[in-house]
Every structure is written in C-alpha cells, then in structure tokens.
Amino acid sequence: MAEHSTGVSPPSTSGGRGFGKILQKSVIRTKAKVLQNLGKADKTRDDDFEQHVQNFNDQQVAVERLQKELKHYTACVRDMAVASYCMYKTIKETYEINWTGYTEVASAVEQMPNLWEDYQIKLTEQVINPLTNYINRFQDMKKMISKRGRKLTDYDSARHNHESLCTAKRHDEAKITKALDELNEARQVYENINVRLNEELPEFHADRIGFLASLFNAIFTAENIFQHESAKLKDSMSEVTLKLCGESNRESKSSILRSDSDVDRADNNHQSVSKKDSATAAKPVPNPRTVSPYGNEATDHSASSPVKDVDQSPVHGNSQWYEAPESSKSSMSKKAGEEKKESKVNSSSNAVCIDASVIDHYSMPKAFDSIYQVPTSNQLIESLYPDDEVLYKVVATHSYVGDDTDELSFEPGEVISVVPFSDPDDKDEGWLVGIKDSSKEKGVFPENFTKRLE
Asked: What kind and span of H or E run contains 452?
C-alpha cells in the first residue's frame, strides 16, 4: 500500500535543543542568584565598575532630560514661526501703500519667514539629530552592561559548582574536570567583556564634556544668528515707522497752528471759569448730614454780605438811624482802630485774613455800647440767643453756601461763635452749630471749612 505524504515536515530538533539550553542557563543563573542572596554562595563584586555604572546612569538621565526640553523648545519655535508669520503679514496688510517706507516694510516682512525656517533647520540638523544619535549609544552600552551581569552570574555559578565538587566526600574526577573547564570558559568570557566595559564606560563618561559643549555652542550660535538677522530687519522697519511718525507729527503741528487763534479765543472765554474751578478744587468736602437739627426754622440769608442794612439787625425795630454826636464819633473811631489792630494781630497769628466788616460791625456809637460792644462774655450774642452758650469761636477758611435752610453760609474770614446743639442726637460728625458774628444768623456748618481761634 502506497504511503501518502501529509505535506507536514517533522519538527526540527536543533531549535528544541537551543531553547532547552537557554532555559537551562536561565535556571542555573536564577539558582545562583538565590544562593547568593541567601549567603550560601559567593558573589563577585567590583566597586570601580559599579561606580562607572552609576556615572553612566546619571549621564543618561541628564541627556534624556535635555533631549526632552530641546524637543519642546523646537516645537515652540515652530509655533512661534507660525505666529510671527501671521502677525507680520497683518502688519504688511495694515501698512498702507501710500505711506512712507512701504517697500522697506514689505521686504522685511517677506524675509522674516525665511529666518525662522533657517533657524528651525539648524536646530534640527545641528542639535536634535546629534543628540538623538548620542542617546542611541546608551542603549548599546546598557546591553553590554546587562550581558556582563549575566556572564558574571555564570562565572559565579561555575565557580560555586567547582568548589562544591572539590569539597564533596566522593571525588568524581570527571565531574571536577568538566566543572573546571566550564569555570575557565565562564571566567574568560566574563573577563573579556568586563575589561572592555571598564575601558569604555570611563571614556564614554569623559567624552560627555566635549559633546555637550559642542551641542550648546550649536544652540547658542543658531539662536544668535537668527536674532541678529531678525534684529536687522526690525531695525529697518523701526527707522521707517519712526520717519512716518515724524511726518505725521509735522502735519498735526501745522493743523494745530492753524487753529491756535480759535483756541486762544476759547481760552479767554473760559479763563474766568477755569480760575473759579481751580479755586474751588482745593476746598474740603463736608461730611454728609443725616439729620437736620433745626428743620426749616433757620432763616435763609446771604453768607457773603455782612450786616450793612440796619433793618437786618434784630436790635433796630424801626428804620431810623441814630446820629451819634462828634464826641461819640471820635471815641467810636478810636475804639474801632484799637479793635482793628487787635483783630489784625490775632488773624496774622492764625494765618487767616479776617474780613474788615467783622470788626467794623462792633464800632457803634456810645449810645448803643450796651448792645454792640462784644467783650469776652459775648453779651450781644447772649442777648440775641440767651439760651445758647458760646463754646469757642472759629474763622472761616473757605467759602460755603448752605444747601438747606438750616445751614449757615459764609465767606472766608468771617467769625462764627460755636454753640452746643439743642438736641445732642441731632449732631452729625464733622458738623457744628454756630452764630455768625456779622449777621447773627444761626445754623449748622461743616467744621473742616473753618479754623478754631485760640
């Protein structure tokens, strides 16, 4: 009976033997490491080599971090190139053709993308690619370090096996000879790769200085060339725009000169208003009032006019004026001069100019001395307002016009006698109640518009 082929070849025995050998070596190395960790087998140690490996690992970490940051920097340069292209393109479109230097600005804008492109090419070719190739060398070195570790484990395992056979009670010369051959072979392989790494690792570590210095120089040179060339273009655009600004300013100046006459007339019309605003700008601001202590009982008088009409004084019931004799006039003039002199001294000591009408008011005929004389006891005010006790006197430092009928209006220099509030609950912070010495008006006023007389 004929045999039919199934078309399936028998499995290769060489592949199975290779896998079995690798598995056997893996088991032997694992067993050797376990015995070393348990302290039942010796482990070969090389402190110098371990130091080389530590330097190698630190070097790899630093270079990989540099590669990461350079890639990020290159990506930012690429984005910046796009943003710069868009911005300068907009500038070119905004810069009108009939403006001075349009050709120079347009030429500079067209050259900017080329500078960015050259800069990116230099970063890629002179920095990124060399650094990538340098980092690839770490992978080859790491493979050699891992291979040395495996060969060291094989050497320690063969050495332990040979020592165990030599110290056994039954000596098997064949096994001992075979173990010795394996030991020598493992030692030879280990020493070859160990010597090679002990030479290459220190050399590779020392070469980092020259490589990194060259890499940094490439970075700085590329950036310097880019910035220098871009600065030239920007300087040219700056000069052109500065010239455009000068021409625009000259045109604006000529238009301003043509309208100077109109401006002068407007200034003359508003000069009085400006002086008034500047004078009132320095005035203090009174605190807001919440309660009106007098309601609508206060009389609305003009603060700027002292008592000139006899009818405004509550003392004169009729419109007739008393004509003082010559002796009374002389005494009156003498007394008025003394009072004016005293008032001038007091006002100069307090750096306040007191209105002369305040003093002239007290210069009355002798027939009315009992009424118009104002000694320190404030007889006149007490006679007009017998229930009010004069606390002290203040002089106005700024003009004030009352907003309500219960507020006191006055001009700078007027003297006011401060009296207590009839109801303490009506008192607002920063406000006083007083009686003007000139017109005997009573009302509330802001304290910061006056200065206390000592």
From this structure: strand 450-452
The pTM score is: 0.47
Q: Express as a percent the part of the chain with pLDDT over 90.
A: 42
Q: What 3-state DSSP class applies to 362?
A: coil
Candidates 143, 115, 314, 113; CA nearest to 227 is 115
Task: Please state, in angstroms and rounded to a whole number, the distance separating the CA atoms of residues 454 and 448.
Answer: 16
Per-residue pLDDT tens for 138-181? Answer: 999 999 999 998 888 888 888 888 888 888 778 788 888 888 89
Q: Quote the CA–CA distance of 65 and 71 in Å, as a whole number.
A: 10
CB 418 within 8 A of CB 391: yes
Closest to 303 in 3D by CA, of 385, 420, 413:
413
Four-residue CA torsion sign, 165, 170, 175, 181: positive
Cα separation, 434 vs 198, in Å, equals: 104
Q: Are 34 and 102 in contact (CB under 8 A)?
A: no
Judge contact between 303 and 402, C-beta under 8 A: yes
Contacts of 130 (CB under 8 A, 6+ apart): 211, 214, 215, 218
Amino acid at 360: D
Cα–Cα–Cα angle for 227, 228, 232, rounded to 5 degrees: 110
Average pLDDT, the chain: 74
Phi, psi of 337 (to 5 degrees): -65, -40
Q: For residue 26, which of 18, 183, 11, 174 has the smallest C-alpha distance?
A: 18
CB 300 within 8 A of CB 405: yes
H helix or E strand, kind and range, residue 432: strand 431-436
